[in-house]
Design goal:
Layout: E1 5-10, E2 16-22, H1 24-27, H2 33-46, H3 106-122, E3 126-129, H4 140-150, E4 156-160, H5 165-171, E5 177-181, H6 187-192, E6 195-199, H7 200-208, H8 210-213, H9 216-228
Parallel strand pairs: 1-3, 3-6, 4-5, 4-6
Antiparallel strand pairs: 1-2
Length: 229
């Protein structure tokens, strides 16, 4: 079983303000690359609208009369103005509205998130801040200064508690900074970022949330209970 890892909790100046133990089943899980690929592809596919549409053979209106006589014009013979090579004709094998969704079980998504978070933690790209302490008024300048004290890397994903409105409003306009509430954390956004920043409240919510319920330990416990029943 994976062991817990102790990580420093930083203050707004980037200095150590304490430490926290990260559960090994959430932050030291094996990174399954094929699983990550499958989950990310499914997420991107689900974002497609699938509303593109072209007219097929039976949907194009127009006459069926030959556009010109068969012989004597020097042109290639044509049978209809509705043919695909003619202007205004139907589209051969064109797209029609469809659903791109792929079935991805919740346990697969949770395992992909654990693998992505664990990869960031193992490579020193997971940061925990006590709080942004911006105050009662949102301040993008203050948020940028705080992030600069945490990491110098280009793309940063900040995970906040859903009730932290001031921090969200302060961070949302920063370039190359993506902000997510902890209950919307996903593998694609983690992999897209260079560094992952949790607030202490968001970290506590992630550890105690649904992700823990799908951990290997929780699955084993539920399986044993089912056998006893």
């Amino acid at each position: 079983m994976a062991e817990t890892t102790k990580v420093d909790v930083l203050d707004v100046a980037g200095k150590k303000a304490g430490s926290v133990e990260l559960p090994g089943d959430l932050f030291d899980a094996q990174t399954n690359v094929p699983l990550l690929h499958q989950v990310v592809v499914a997420q991107l596919a689900a974002a497609r609208q699938g509303t593109q549409s072209t007219k097929r053979h039976g949907e194009v209106s127009g006459t069926g009369k030959k556009p010109f006589k068969q012989k004597g014009t020097g042109r290639a013979r044509q049978g209809s103005m509705r043919a695909p090579q003619m202007r205004g004709g139907y589209i051969s094998h064109g797209p029609k509205p469809r659903d791109y969704d792929q079935r991805t079980p919740k346990k697969m998504k949770a395992a992909a998130v654990r693998g992505a978070v664990s990869d960031r933690a193992r490579n020193g790209r997971l940061h925990i801040i006590n709080e942004f302490a911006i105050g009662s008024t949102p301040s993008t300048k203050a948020a940028a200064s705080i992030l600069l004290s945490l990491t110098q890397r280009r793309n940063v994903l900040v995970v906040l508690d859903r009730t932290d409105d001031n921090s969200y409003k302060s961070l949302r306009n920063l370039q190359n900074v993506h902000v997510l509430p902890v209950d919307q954390l996903n593998a694609y956004d983690i992999l897209l970022s260079d560094d992952l920043v949790f607030t202490k409240a968001a970290l506590d919510a992630y550890i105690a949330g649904p992700a823990k319920g799908t951990s290997a330990k929780a699955v084993a416990t539920s399986a044993e209970a089912a056998k006893e029943a």
